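Q: Joint fold for the lines below.
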Amino acid sequence: MKWVVLVGSVRKGSFNAAVARALAGIAPEGVSVELLPSIAQLPIYDGDIEAAGIPDSVAQLATTVAAADALVIVTPEYNYSIPGGLKNAIDWLSRVPTKPLKGKPALIQSASMGVIGGARAQYHLRQVLVCLDMAVMNVPEVMVGGVHTKVTDGVLTDQGTLSFIEGQLAAFHDFVRKHKLAEGA
Amino acid sequence: MKWVVLVGSVRKGSFNAAVARALAGIAPEGVSVELLPSIAQLPIYDGDIEAAGIPDSVAQLATTVAAADALVIVTPEYNYSIPGGLKNAIDWLSRVPTKPLKGKPALIQSASMGVIGGARAQYHLRQVLVCLDMAVMNVPEVMVGGVHTKVTDGVLTDQGTLSFIEGQLAAFHDFVRKHKLAEGA
Amino acid sequence: MKWVVLVGSVRKGSFNAAVARALAGIAPEGVSVELLPSIAQLPIYDGDIEAAGIPDSVAQLATTVAAADALVIVTPEYNYSIPGGLKNAIDWLSRVPTKPLKGKPALIQSASMGVIGGARAQYHLRQVLVCLDMAVMNVPEVMVGGVHTKVTDGVLTDQGTLSFIEGQLAAFHDFVRKHKLAEGA
Amino acid sequence: MKWVVLVGSVRKGSFNAAVARALAGIAPEGVSVELLPSIAQLPIYDGDIEAAGIPDSVAQLATTVAAADALVIVTPEYNYSIPGGLKNAIDWLSRVPTKPLKGKPALIQSASMGVIGGARAQYHLRQVLVCLDMAVMNVPEVMVGGVHTKVTDGVLTDQGTLSFIEGQLAAFHDFVRKHKLAEGA
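A: Joint structure:
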C-alpha cells in the first residue's frame, strides 16, 4: 500500500515537513510513504491558465496522487486557517478532469509552536474535503503543539508524539483497508 | 476616504472582478474605490523567502493597504472555502512587520454561479480576519448567487444586486466613519 | 434496514419535520424510516443530572438510535448554526456510556425559507459529528431553500425536491451498505 | 458600566462558572459584573411556544441583557461546538422583538480540561454572533486549557490565568468604551 503526503509548509526547516518525514519510519508494515513535491512549485490558480491546459506541475501531482492508496496532509495553521499555498494546491487538484481526490482516503495532521497545534486549520480543511468527496478519517486526530520542542535538527524526536502518530497511522491503515473492501464490494 | 479592493479570483473574465469594478460607481459620495494588484503576482508564501526579505510585490501591496481607510474583499468560493491564492495574499500581508491589516475596517463580498453565493468562503474568511484583528462589518452580507446571469460583458448589470450592494456600501461607510471616530477617541 | 430521523425543529408546523416525514415514501426499497421523538422532551444537558443517572428520555432515545442502521438529521439553521435544541439532544447522546452514535452512518439534510437552505448549520453539524466519530456521507448534499413554497399543508409536495432527495437517499443506502460490509470485514 | 455574563455550563461545580465568578474581582474599576440566570431554566426553543408569547424566563433574561453595556459569554466546548443549552438561550434571545443582542459589545471566554481550551466552540459562537450583529472583540482570546488544575474548591486560583484574563477585560473595557462613543457619534 502506498500513501502520499502533501505538506502545507514550504521552508526548508519546516516543522511540519519534519513530521511528514517521520511517517515512513512509523507507518504500518507493508505501507510505503512518499512525500509529494513542494506546493511552492504550482502557480496561483487561474482559470485562464486552466483553460490553456492544466500545467505540467499540476498534472504530475495529480497523477501521483491518483496512483496512491491514500493521501496524508500535514500542515501548519496560518492565520487560523489553511495555508494559502496548500489550499492553492488542493484547488488545482480539484480542477483536474480525472478527479484524483474524489473518494480517496485522507488523513490530516497538523503541528504548530502554540498549544492548539493547528486545530483551526484542520476543521477548515475538513470542510474542503467534504466538497471533494474524500473519505477522511475522524479520530484519533493528530495536532502537535509546541512542535519546536519536539524536532531536533529537522527530525521529529519526541517519543510520545511519535507513538501517538504511530497509533493514528495504524488506525488509518485499517480505515483504508476497510474503505477499499467496501468500494470493491 | 479611500477603500481598496482585494479580488479573490485571477482570470480576466472573473465575475468577482466584475463585482469589484462595480463598486466605484455605487460607493457613497466622497469615497474612492481602487482595485489592488492581482493576487497572482505574489509567490507562494515561504518562510525562507520571508527571511531573505519581504518580496517587493508584497511590500507594495502592504503599503497600499496600509494607506487605505478600509479593505474590501470580493471573492469566489473554491471548494467550500477561501481561494488558495487569496489566502496566500492574506498570509503574506500578515507577515509584514508594519501589520497593515491590524485594526483596519473590512468588508466581505462574494459571488458564485450557484445559489449559495460563496457563503462558505465568507465564514472561513471571517475566522481569518479575527486572527488578524480586523474590524469586519457583520451585516448586511453580500453573497451574489447566479452571478453569471447578472454580469454582461464583464459589467455587473443586475439592478437589484447593484442596489443591494449600494446599501451595504452605505452601511460600511457609516461603520468605517464610526470606527475612525472611536479609534481617535 | 432501518433508519431513524432526528428533527432539529419542534413546532407542529415545522417545514423540516415535513421534509423528514417525506423520507419514508421515497426511501429505497427495504428501508424503513422512523422519526425519533421530539428533541423538546429532553432537559437541558446538566452534568449533575447526568451524575444522578442518564434521564429516561435520553436513554430511550439512545436505545432507539443504537438499534438503527443509520441516523438522518433534518434540521433548520438557527442563527447561522445548529439549533440549540438539536445540539442539546446530540450532547446528551454523546454522554450515554454505550456511545450510540460512534461509527454510525449519518446523513444530513436542512431546509430553510431563505436561499441558503441551512448550509451553515450543516457544516457546524459536520464538525460535531467528527467528534462523535460518525460516518457522515459527503455528497450529494440536501439544502432545501425556499422550503415554505415547497410544503403544502405539512406535506413536501415539490417534485424536484422530492426527486433530488430520493437520489440522495439512494446514494446513502449504498453508503450504509458498504459501511456495514467494511465493518464486518 | 455593567457587564452581564452568560455561562454555557449548568452543573454546580462547573469550571466555566468558576471562571465567570472570578471576573468581578478582576474587572476594570467602575465595571460591575453580574452573572445571568442559568440557561437550564429555559425551555427548548419551540416556535409554537413563541407564538403563544415569549416565556417569562426568556423575557426577563432579555431585559437584563438589554440593560447591560456588554455581554460576556463563558463556555465549555461540547462535541467540538457550542453547548446545546447555551445555543438554545441565544436562539431564544434572538427571537425577542426588542433584539437585546443586536449591536451589543460581546466578549468570549472558554475553558476546558484539554489543551485546546474550548477553541472550537468559540469560532462557532463567533459565526452565530455575526448573525446577531453583535460587536465581538477579536483579541486577546481567552481559552483556558487544563482548567481542572487551575480551579480550587470552585475558585479560579491560577495567577497566570487570572492575570491574562484581567488583561483581556481591560482591553474589552476600552473596546466597549470606544464602541459607545462611536454609536453616540
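Q: Anything notable?
A: Chain C touches chain B at residues 80, 115-117, 119-120, 123, 143, 145 (CB under 8 Å). The two ends of chain C are 19 Å apart (CA to CA).
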